[in-house]
Design brief:
By secondary structure, the chain is mostly beta strands. It has 2 domains: about 140 residues, 2,3-Dihydroxybiphenyl 1,2-Dioxygenase, domain 1, CATH 3.10.180; about 45 residues, no CATH class. It is about 10% helix and about 30% strand. It is built from 2 helices and 11 strands. The strands form 3 sheets. Strands 1, 2, 3 and 8 form a 4-stranded mixed beta sheet that branches. A 4-stranded mixed beta sheet has the order 4-7-6-5, covered by helices on one side. Strands 9-11-10 form a 3-stranded antiparallel beta sheet, with helices on one face. The longest helix is centred in the middle third of the chain and has 10 residues.
Amino acid sequence: MTPVFGGQHAGMGTKNYLVRLDDGHRNPAYLELLGLDDAQPDVAASSTMFGVGRRGPDPRPHLVTWAIHPGDLDRTAADAASHGIDVGPVEEWSRNAPDGTLLEWRVAMNPALPLGGLQPFLINWGSTAHPSANPALSTFALKGLEFESPDPSALERTLTGIGLPSCPRSGSDSSPPSSPGSRPPTGSSSCADT
């Protein structure tokens, strides 16, 4: 499959490519492949979207973070704050698509990427068409989503605090005992079929 060029993030030093994700439940979803934009060489590494410029010119691909689309972004951000979860300020963002169409959306993103990026940011596309609606996108089947964290309780507290249904936990009871020099035990949260 070939990802479709999504566009540049002007002033943020990045560009993206997109593929559609099909979870079998008709929930619109997409994967955004984000990288440095050679046409924006003067953007400071610290000012690039998600700090990808700090990773160097040829970083190893990995998942940086993810997003959810709540029904009411402002209320979700306020509810999260009432649970002690900093989702970041609600901001208006925009960029031009390759065909010149102005895309506008609202986002709340904590630039610290809490929990190693496992805390999702919030996004609302408003009247702009959802990126997954682009008929040119290739489609990947999404069978589920699972997160591993050294602190599964904090992850579950965060996901619940931003209004996601409590994801079933697995892994923490089946992890081998920790020994010197080994990785600490982790737990995982699975959002498959939710």
